[in-house]
Specification:
The chain is mainly β and 111 residues long. 0% of the residues lie in helices and 51% in strands. The protein has strands at residues 3-7, 10-12, 18-25, 34-39, 46-51, 57-59, 67-72, 77-82, 91-97, 100-101, 105-109. Strands 2, 4, 5, 6, 9, 10 and 11 form a seven-stranded mixed sheet that branches. A four-stranded antiparallel sheet has the order 1-3-8-7, with no helix packed on it.
Length: 111
Amino acid sequence: QVQLVESGGGLVQPGGSLRLSCAASGIRFSTSSVGWYRQAPGKQREWVAGIGSSGQVNYADSVKGRFAISRDNAENTVYLQMNSLNSEDTAVYYCNTGGVWGQGTQVTVSS
C-alpha cells in the first residue's frame, strides 16, 4: 500500500522560505514521477511542480524561479524548496504519485 506523508508547512512572512517534504512508503520514488500540488481556499487544486523518474523537473509559471523540487532516493523523499513566498502561495500543499495523495500540509504566508 502506497502512503505519502507531507510535512514542513507553517506560517511564514512574505519573502520567507519553507521546505516541504513528501515521504513515501510502499513505493520507490527513484523510479516514480512525483508532483506537488496546492489548493487555496475557494480554489481548485493546481499543479505546482513535478519531478520525473529520470530527474527531469517542471514548474508552473507562477512558481518558476522561486520553487525547486528535488528528490533524495536514499530517504525516499521528495522536497519542495519554496523561496520568496507571497500571500498567493498560501494553500494546502499535497504530493502525488500514481494517483495517490498525501494528507497535505498547510502553508500560510502572512505578516
